[in-house]
Amino acid sequence: MEMMRVNGVEIEDTFAEAFRMWGCRVIITAKNQKWADTAAMEMTGFATSVIMCDCEAGIERRLNEDETPDGRPGTAVIVFAHSKKTLIEPLVRRIGQCVLTCPTTAVYNGIPEEEADAMLDIGRRLRFFGDGYQVKMRLGDGWLRRRRFWRIPVMEGEFLIEEMLGAKKGVGGGNFIIMGVDEDSTLEAAERAVEAIHRVPGVITPFPGGLCRSGSKVGSRYPFLRASTNTPFCPAIKHTYLESQVPEGVNSIIEVVLNGLDEASIRKAMAEGIRAAVEVEGVRRITAVNFGGKLGKYQIYLRDCLGGEAS
Amino acid sequence: MMELRLKPKVSGLSIPLEAEVISPDVIAGKTLREVEELRVYHGNRAETLGEYFEVEGEVAPNPEEQLIVVEGDVPWVKYIGAEMTAGKVVVKGDAGMHLGSKMSGGEIIVEGSVGDWAGAEMAGGLIRIRGDAGDLLGAAYRGSPEGMRGGCIYVEGSAGYETGTGMRRGLIVIGGDAAPFTGAHMNGGVIFILGRAAKRLGAQMRGNGSLIICLGEVEELLPTFVYDTTYTPTFMRIYLKTLSEKLGIKRAEEYIGRAFRRYRGDRAVGGDGEILVVERG
């Protein structure tokens, strides 16, 4: 296969196969950053892949006091699911169980109505927790942008949540694979990649620390298992698995998976991530996972992301 | 915006002039001559606007681009900006009764004080009053079930009796003191009082998110408002930020993070509205 090189690292001329997902950005604020982060971490737990989880979620970034509606420190979380409909339930459950329960938190919409493809009535559903003592808060009627919130009495004080959260059609399954000579260099490159990716707005990396060491392929030899380890990319069996795609000299591989609120953000984030990864000595090759174009509507070529620049 | 100036030719009329034609909706799209000939009522006599005002400046093709400046005190002119939907009116002095009543959009700025019924039953837009407001600010007209239904009224000075009576939605901010019966019969909407709140506050208030927030002293609360707790609600930060950022009330920021005493009522009518009073000291 034809290769371009960036910083001496081979970039395979292939594409990441991504697919349509719906995303919702939730802004969590709290008395201090500690509690905003705590709620965000809880809310995005067990949300790595829709293969086994009800959604894919991650922390987008921390927000300063001047970036949040109530002037407190905040954390932006983005939750993705296959459709608008399947996005609602994880949001209700996760906000209800992980944010509502977390001291001092409040929840606000992170995608304004004019940018959203749909508004989801998450706060309106959660209000029933107030058992009739919830209070509707109105803002802006007839003179500012109209907003609605629900104030729900809780044992600690009062939980505030915006009535509607914006959702938009996004892209899931953006990815690239880092191949290195050993575990240390591969991990360091992947960590640097994730750090660079998180500088791009609207993008999350739902796997642990943004990384997936156990990328999967569709199906398995077992009829009950619909996804299994990505055998062509397992260095441990590179000489015994006939269709191995692990190059000689490569002994560790990590996949970086990213979801974004739009395709452009995914492309930009992939490029930033790859450029950061190839700076690490010991990285041999970058490639991407695809299914021959059968799974997703987006084919994000690594060469295009990098602008075709070899160096 | 295109500016049309109205200079009063008379002063101190004992019989008020009813001039709801002083509105961007009426004036936009007309010629200056047509504006001068707009009908006003002085008592029971139909007269023209040109008999009371010198008209000069530009007329915009649509209300959104029309600015009307009334240059001077006109406490004898009623219904300025009544039922307006867009554009802007500036009164460089006092204005009479019913200013901005039933308006649904646009902005009115009064550099002096206003008479009674300002913003009565308004549904949208913004009224800023640099001086004081008379009685029944943003209230419901007699026999009407609902008062203010949207929009915002900001009075930098004090407001008279029965402010926000029957209020349903929207925001009233009183920078100074509020006279008795403020928020009576409220069934929604929010009233901020930065000065002293007088007796009968929120009398017969119902629910639907009705809220009176007192940042100053409260003379006396009705016994039918029940004290619940003292707390620091997060939602208050949003309102206070809105006051600071959208209305320029910078002193509102001083109350961010302050504790409030929460009262619910008016239990006399089974109401579940709220009065929040800032904790002193």
Word description of this protein:
The complex is a heterodimer of chains A (311) and B (281). Chain A has helices at 33-43, 84-99, 122-126, 183-197, 263-277, 302-305; strands at 3-6, 9-12, 15-29, 56-63, 74-81, 106-109, 118-120, 135-139, 147-154, 157-162, 165-180, 203-204, 211-212, 216-218, 227-229, 252-260, 283-287, 298-301. Chain A is an alpha+beta fold. Chain A has 2 domains: 3-18 and 172-305, Alpha-Beta Plaits (2-Layer Sandwich), CATH 3.30.70; 20-168, 2-Layer Sandwich (Alpha-Beta Plaits), CATH 3.30.70. In chain A, the strands form 2 sheets. Chain A has a 16-stranded mixed β-sheet that branches. Chain A has a two-stranded antiparallel sheet with strand order 14-15. The mean pLDDT of chain A is 95. Chain B is elongated and about 60 Å long. Classes of the chains: A alpha+beta (311), B mainly beta (281). The A-B interface holds A 29, 69-72, 104, 106, 135-139, 141-144, 149, 151, 157-158, 160 and B 104-105, 122-126, 149-152, 169-171, 188-190, 208-209, 231-235, 237-239, 241-242, 246, 256, 274.
Give the gist of this structure:
The complex is a heterodimer of chains A (311) and B (281). By secondary structure, chain A is an alpha+beta fold.
Comma- or semicolon-separated keywords:
heterodimer; A: 311 residues; alpha+beta; Alpha-Beta Plaits; 16-stranded mixed β-sheet; two-stranded antiparallel ribbon; 6 helices; 18 strands; 21% helix; elongated; B: 281 residues; mainly beta; 13-stranded mixed β-sheet; 4-stranded mixed β-sheet; 3 helices; 8% helix; 30% strand
Number of strands of chain A: 18
Number of helical elements of chain A: 6
The CATH topology of the largest domain in chain A is given as: Alpha-Beta Plaits
The CATH class of the largest domain in chain A = Alpha Beta
pLDDT average of chain B, as an integer?
97
Structural class of chain A: alpha+beta
The biggest beta sheet of chain A reads: 16 strands, mixed
User: Class by helix and strand content of chain B?
Assistant: mainly beta
Biggest sheet overview of chain B: 13 strands, mixed
